[in-house]
Design a protein that fits this description.
This protein is mainly α and 173 residues long. It is 78% helix and 0% strand. The chain has 10 helices and no strands. Helix 3 (38-65) packs parallel to helix 10 and helix 9 (129-150) packs antiparallel against helix 10 (155-170). It is elongated and about 55 Å long. The two termini are 25 Å apart.
Amino acid sequence: TMDLLGSGDAEEVARRKTASYTTVGPLAAGAALAGANDEQVERLAGIARPIGVAFQLRDDILGAFGAPSVTGKPVGTDLRTGKRTFLILEALERAEPESRALIESVLGDEHAPDETVAEACGLIEQCGARAACERRIDELVGAAQQNIAAEPYLPAGKALLEHVTKLVGRRIV
C-alpha cells in the first residue's frame, strides 16, 4: 500500500485510504440513498474528506502515544511496520540527525525492542512532530466546520455533522 511503500504524501494516503472508507464513502452512500444529486454528494465530500484525514492523523498520534489498554494495540505499531504517516514524516523532517537516525532504526523493524520504540516515540514528541500533527488536525476540523456552516442543511443534519467533526478532532480511543 501507499503508506508502507512511502509513495505519495501522508495526507494524500489518508485522503485516498482512510477518508474514502470512513467518511466520504459512507456519507456519499447515505446521501445517494436519500436522493442527493452528484453536486450535493460532492459538496458533502468536501466536509467528509477533512474529517477523514483528521481521523487518520488522530489515529497516528494514538498509535504512537495512546495507552495500549485504551487503544487495544501496542505503542509504536506504525513505526515497527514502517508506515510513513504524517506524524513520522514530520518527525523525520524535524528531528536532529542523531534523533532521526534512532527513529529510522526502528522504522520497519518489527522486532525493535520496546525500549527503543518508546525512545523513538519520545523523540517524535520532543522534535515537535506531535504538536504539528495536532495543529494539522485542528486545521482540518476547522475546514470541515467551515464547509458545514456554508451548507444549507437542516439544523439537525448540521448538528450531527458538527458533533462528529468535534469528536474526531479530540477523540481519545
